[in-house]
Amino acid sequence: MTAMEILVIILSTFLALFLLIGIVLAVLLIRITQQIKRVTTTAERTVGSIESVVAGVSKVTTPAMIAKIVLGQINKRRKK
What does the pLDDT look like over 27-72, one tens digit per residue? Predict the structure, then answer.
């Protein structure tokens, strides 16, 4: 076995090792991106539901606040 053959064996071993590590890292990256996609979808759904709740509450509270102010003014006038 010559030095060139040993060098070729060493280099091919390292190439195979780095190729295997690259494949594993690519698979892990794909899994992480899928998990991030699920998290963002859940966050968007949560924000949408919170937004609809806030819109509903604002529709109810605005007339209630106006009625409270009007009743307060009526009560002040009655006391005079």
Answer: 999 999 999 999 999 999 999 999 988 888 777 777 777 788 888 8
The range of the structural domain enclosing residue 54 comes to 1-80
Rounded distance between C-alpha atoms, residue 62 and residue 57, angstroms: 8
Residue owning tokens 């409270």: 68
CA–CA dist 13, 6 (Å, integer)? 11
DSSP 6-47: HHHHHHHHHHHHHHHHHHHHHHHHHHHHHHHHHHHHHHHHHH
Rg (CA), the chain: 34
Instruction: Tell which residue, 64, 66, 56, 68, has the closest CA to residue 48.
Output: 56
Domain count, the chain: 1
In eight-state DSSP terms, residue 79 is H
